[in-house]
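explain this.
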Amino acid sequence: MFGFLRSILDNRSLLWSLTKNDFKQKYIGNLLGVFWAFIQPTATVLIFWFVFQVGFKSQPVDNFPFILWLMAGMFPWFFFAEGLSTGTNSIIANAFLVKKVVFRVSLLPIISLLSALAIHIFFIFFMFAMFIYYGYAPQIYWLQIIYYLFATIILLLGFSWITSSVVVFFKDMGQLVIMIIQFGFWLTPIFWMMKTVPEKYHWIIELNPLVYIIEGYRNSMIYHKWFWEDMGMTLYFWSVTIAIFILGGLTFKKLRPHFSDVL
């Protein structure tokens, strides 16, 4: 871990350069360019808002406007989905760097995470602005978003190490990740509340570590709860996340020597 953190500092200039290049490459050739990175998620939220708020006339959730409650759940999910899907392809997309001995290949998923993080930070401030627009003054609980953002990054990095190294040998991993993201979107309480499900099934839903993140964003923005107030979920999340992080590191280290031969 110390060596990995040291390599981030030693390669920070290259990481920044590759992140900017990765960000531009996604939208090169489009008239609006990188603005599509912000337009597409915004349009998605507006469509869901129109369908549920205008079409189905969804009522406020816990006395909060539906659009605010929805954003607090969708924005962290957008970050996770984008980070995992691009992180999975990070090794294949940067195959030219794999054979460079001076570059630590395990840093490649970070490039995808930083690219997705730039967009997510924009939407965090967009979310803050929307809450203020609706008349909700900034609260100290909002600072807790930094903690949940850090937790999401650690979870994403562990997953990305696993998927990005496996996809080099098993191409179907990319399609499996897309399916998992699609199913995960509806199985995670983004559009629905935990209390709408019988309490005896809550433990099954809470096995999904993304529930901790989604609920954490809402606790920070809406319900004003600190993460240590539910120490059981916090300990469970970090136990699973650290296990995934270690497994990801070991998997990447085991498969790394064979990347150049396969690519």
The chain has one domain: 59-262. The chain has 13 helices and no strands. Residues 59-262 form one domain.
